[in-house]
Amino acid sequence: MSDFCASLWPEESTPEEQINCSDCGLDKHGSRMVWGEGNPEASLMILLDNPGAREDRDNKPFVCGTRQTLQKAVGEVGLTAGDLYITYILKRKPTRSYEKEHTRQICMNHLNQQLLAKQPKLIVCLGNVAVQSFFHNPEADVKSLRGKFHHVHGYKTTAAYHPLAVRRRPNLWRLFLEDWMLVAKEYLTSKKPYIKE
Ligand code: SF4
Protein backbone atom coordinates (compact mmCIF):
# COMPACT_ATOMS: atom_id res chain seq x y z
CA MET A 1 0.00 0.00 0.00
CA SER A 2 2.20 2.79 -1.25
CA ASP A 3 -0.18 5.60 -0.22
CA PHE A 4 -0.36 4.44 3.39
CA CYS A 5 0.33 7.25 5.83
CA ALA A 6 0.55 6.56 9.57
CA SER A 7 -0.61 9.12 12.10
CA LEU A 8 -0.32 9.60 15.81
CA TRP A 9 -3.53 8.25 17.34
CA PRO A 10 -5.06 10.22 20.22
CA GLU A 11 -3.44 9.60 23.55
CA GLU A 12 -5.52 8.75 26.59
CA SER A 13 -4.49 10.95 29.50
CA THR A 14 -2.85 9.26 32.43
CA PRO A 15 -5.24 9.28 35.38
CA GLU A 16 -4.44 12.13 37.75
CA GLU A 17 -3.62 9.81 40.63
CA GLN A 18 -1.09 7.87 38.53
CA ILE A 19 0.80 10.77 36.94
CA ASN A 20 3.60 10.49 39.48
CA CYS A 21 3.56 6.70 39.74
CA SER A 22 6.94 5.32 40.79
CA ASP A 23 5.74 1.90 41.89
CA CYS A 24 8.16 -0.12 39.76
CA GLY A 25 11.11 2.28 39.50
CA LEU A 26 10.86 2.84 35.74
CA ASP A 27 10.12 6.49 36.44
CA LYS A 28 13.91 6.82 36.86
CA HIS A 29 14.53 5.68 33.27
CA GLY A 30 13.57 9.05 31.80
CA SER A 31 10.86 7.96 29.33
CA ARG A 32 7.45 9.42 29.82
CA MET A 33 4.32 7.51 30.71
CA VAL A 34 1.78 6.62 28.02
CA TRP A 35 -1.42 5.22 29.48
CA GLY A 36 -3.20 4.33 26.27
CA GLU A 37 -3.94 5.39 22.69
CA GLY A 38 -6.78 5.18 20.21
CA ASN A 39 -10.35 5.12 21.48
CA PRO A 40 -10.57 4.58 25.27
CA GLU A 41 -14.17 3.43 24.79
CA ALA A 42 -13.33 0.77 22.20
CA SER A 43 -14.08 -2.81 23.13
CA LEU A 44 -11.18 -4.13 21.10
CA MET A 45 -8.03 -3.82 23.22
CA ILE A 46 -4.50 -4.20 21.90
CA LEU A 47 -1.85 -5.10 24.42
CA LEU A 48 1.80 -4.29 23.73
CA ASP A 49 4.88 -4.65 25.93
CA ASN A 50 5.57 -0.91 26.40
CA PRO A 51 4.97 2.34 24.54
CA GLY A 52 7.32 3.68 21.92
CA ALA A 53 8.09 7.39 22.03
CA ARG A 54 5.40 9.73 20.70
CA GLU A 55 7.88 12.60 20.35
CA ASP A 56 11.29 12.78 18.70
CA ARG A 57 14.40 14.34 20.25
CA ASP A 58 13.12 17.81 19.36
CA ASN A 59 9.84 17.01 21.06
CA LYS A 60 8.00 16.94 17.74
CA PRO A 61 5.20 14.36 17.21
CA PHE A 62 6.66 11.13 15.95
CA VAL A 63 5.06 7.90 14.66
CA CYS A 64 7.38 5.05 15.61
CA GLY A 65 7.87 1.88 13.56
CA THR A 66 5.60 -0.16 15.82
CA ARG A 67 2.72 2.26 15.26
CA GLN A 68 3.36 2.47 11.53
CA THR A 69 3.24 -1.29 11.02
CA LEU A 70 0.29 -1.79 13.32
CA GLN A 71 -1.72 0.97 11.63
CA LYS A 72 -0.92 -0.35 8.20
CA ALA A 73 -2.20 -3.83 9.11
CA VAL A 74 -5.36 -2.72 10.89
CA GLY A 75 -6.09 -0.32 8.01
CA GLU A 76 -5.79 -3.13 5.49
CA VAL A 77 -8.43 -5.17 7.31
CA GLY A 78 -10.82 -2.22 7.62
CA LEU A 79 -10.28 -1.15 11.24
CA THR A 80 -9.63 2.44 12.33
CA ALA A 81 -8.32 4.24 15.42
CA GLY A 82 -11.93 4.52 16.58
CA ASP A 83 -12.25 0.72 16.76
CA LEU A 84 -9.17 0.16 18.89
CA TYR A 85 -7.74 0.94 22.26
CA ILE A 86 -4.02 0.29 22.74
CA THR A 87 -2.38 -0.12 26.09
CA TYR A 88 0.75 -1.65 27.56
CA ILE A 89 2.08 -4.13 30.09
CA LEU A 90 4.51 -1.36 31.16
CA LYS A 91 3.28 2.20 30.82
CA ARG A 92 6.83 3.49 30.42
CA LYS A 93 9.50 2.30 28.02
CA PRO A 94 12.54 0.92 29.86
CA THR A 95 15.76 2.51 28.69
CA ARG A 96 18.24 0.27 30.47
CA SER A 97 18.26 -3.10 32.20
CA TYR A 98 15.61 -3.75 34.85
CA GLU A 99 14.02 -6.61 36.74
CA LYS A 100 11.63 -7.69 34.03
CA GLU A 101 9.27 -10.10 35.79
CA HIS A 102 8.97 -8.05 38.95
CA THR A 103 8.45 -4.78 37.08
CA ARG A 104 5.81 -6.24 34.78
CA GLN A 105 3.92 -7.71 37.71
CA ILE A 106 3.81 -4.35 39.44
CA CYS A 107 2.69 -2.32 36.45
CA MET A 108 0.07 -4.90 35.52
CA ASN A 109 -1.87 -3.76 38.57
CA HIS A 110 -2.74 -0.74 36.41
CA LEU A 111 -3.71 -2.96 33.51
CA ASN A 112 -5.96 -4.98 35.79
CA GLN A 113 -7.72 -1.78 36.82
CA GLN A 114 -8.11 -0.80 33.16
CA LEU A 115 -9.62 -4.19 32.37
CA LEU A 116 -12.11 -3.90 35.19
CA ALA A 117 -13.12 -0.43 34.06
CA LYS A 118 -13.18 -1.03 30.31
CA GLN A 119 -14.35 -4.65 30.12
CA PRO A 120 -12.97 -5.24 26.61
CA LYS A 121 -14.78 -7.83 24.50
CA LEU A 122 -11.64 -8.90 22.67
CA ILE A 123 -7.96 -8.54 23.54
CA VAL A 124 -5.11 -8.87 21.04
CA CYS A 125 -1.69 -9.49 22.64
CA LEU A 126 1.14 -8.43 20.33
CA GLY A 127 4.49 -10.12 20.91
CA ASN A 128 5.76 -12.69 23.39
CA VAL A 129 6.19 -10.25 26.27
CA ALA A 130 2.53 -9.24 26.13
CA VAL A 131 1.46 -12.86 25.66
CA GLN A 132 3.55 -14.25 28.53
CA SER A 133 2.60 -11.45 30.87
CA PHE A 134 -1.11 -11.52 30.11
CA PHE A 135 -1.43 -15.31 30.00
CA HIS A 136 0.70 -15.54 33.19
CA ASN A 137 2.77 -18.17 31.45
CA PRO A 138 6.50 -17.67 30.78
CA GLU A 139 6.43 -20.54 28.27
CA ALA A 140 3.61 -19.12 26.14
CA ASP A 141 4.48 -17.78 22.71
CA VAL A 142 2.79 -16.09 19.79
CA LYS A 143 3.70 -18.88 17.41
CA SER A 144 1.59 -21.46 19.21
CA LEU A 145 -1.27 -19.15 20.24
CA ARG A 146 -1.90 -17.07 17.12
CA GLY A 147 -4.76 -17.78 14.74
CA LYS A 148 -7.22 -18.84 17.46
CA PHE A 149 -9.17 -17.36 20.34
CA HIS A 150 -8.45 -18.20 23.95
CA HIS A 151 -10.23 -17.36 27.18
CA VAL A 152 -7.80 -15.68 29.55
CA HIS A 153 -8.96 -14.38 32.94
CA GLY A 154 -12.46 -14.24 31.48
CA TYR A 155 -11.47 -12.26 28.35
CA LYS A 156 -11.61 -13.49 24.80
CA THR A 157 -8.00 -13.15 23.68
CA THR A 158 -5.82 -13.81 20.69
CA ALA A 159 -2.16 -13.24 19.86
CA ALA A 160 -0.14 -11.90 16.95
CA TYR A 161 3.50 -11.03 16.35
CA HIS A 162 4.92 -7.77 17.64
CA PRO A 163 4.86 -5.12 14.88
CA LEU A 164 8.61 -4.59 15.30
CA ALA A 165 9.23 -8.30 14.70
CA VAL A 166 7.16 -7.99 11.54
CA ARG A 167 9.29 -5.03 10.40
CA ARG A 168 12.49 -6.95 11.04
CA ARG A 169 11.25 -10.14 9.39
CA PRO A 170 9.08 -9.22 6.38
CA ASN A 171 8.07 -12.87 5.94
CA LEU A 172 5.90 -12.40 9.06
CA TRP A 173 3.78 -9.74 7.36
CA ARG A 174 1.48 -12.30 5.74
CA LEU A 175 0.87 -14.01 9.12
CA PHE A 176 0.38 -10.67 10.84
CA LEU A 177 -2.23 -9.72 8.28
CA GLU A 178 -3.94 -13.11 8.62
CA ASP A 179 -4.19 -12.55 12.37
CA TRP A 180 -5.68 -9.11 11.89
CA MET A 181 -8.16 -10.51 9.38
CA LEU A 182 -9.27 -12.98 12.03
CA VAL A 183 -9.68 -10.16 14.56
CA ALA A 184 -11.52 -7.92 12.10
CA LYS A 185 -13.86 -10.72 11.06
CA GLU A 186 -14.71 -11.48 14.67
CA TYR A 187 -15.17 -7.79 15.46
CA LEU A 188 -16.98 -6.66 12.33
CA THR A 189 -19.33 -9.62 11.92
CA SER A 190 -20.53 -9.38 15.49
CA LYS A 191 -20.07 -5.67 15.92
CA LYS A 192 -23.23 -5.01 17.89
CA PRO A 193 -22.07 -6.71 21.07
CA TYR A 194 -18.82 -4.76 20.80
CA ILE A 195 -20.50 -1.37 20.83
CA LYS A 196 -21.00 -0.14 24.36
CA GLU A 197 -24.48 1.25 25.07
S1 SF4 B 1 5.85 1.61 34.45
FE1 SF4 B 1 3.89 1.31 35.52
S2 SF4 B 1 4.34 0.82 37.67
FE2 SF4 B 1 6.20 1.62 36.68
S3 SF4 B 1 6.22 3.79 37.20
FE3 SF4 B 1 5.20 3.61 35.20
S4 SF4 B 1 2.98 3.36 35.63
FE4 SF4 B 1 4.13 3.03 37.55
UniProtKB/TrEMBL annotation:
It comes from the Bacteria. Pfam families: UDG (PF03167). Keywords: 4Fe-4S, DNA damage, DNA repair, Hydrolase, Iron, Iron-sulfur, Metal-binding, Nucleotidyltransferase, Transferase. Its EC number is 2.7.7.7. InterPro entries: UDG_Type-4/5, Uracil-DNA_glycosylase-like, Uracil-DNA_glycosylase-like_sf. The keyword 4Fe-4S applies. It is an enzyme of class 2 (transferase). One of its GO terms (molecular function) is DNA-directed DNA polymerase activity. Residues 35-181 form the Uracil-DNA glycosylase-like domain. This is DNA polymerase. It comes from Metabacillus niabensis. The lineage of its organism: Bacteria, Bacillati, Bacillota, Bacilli, Bacillales.
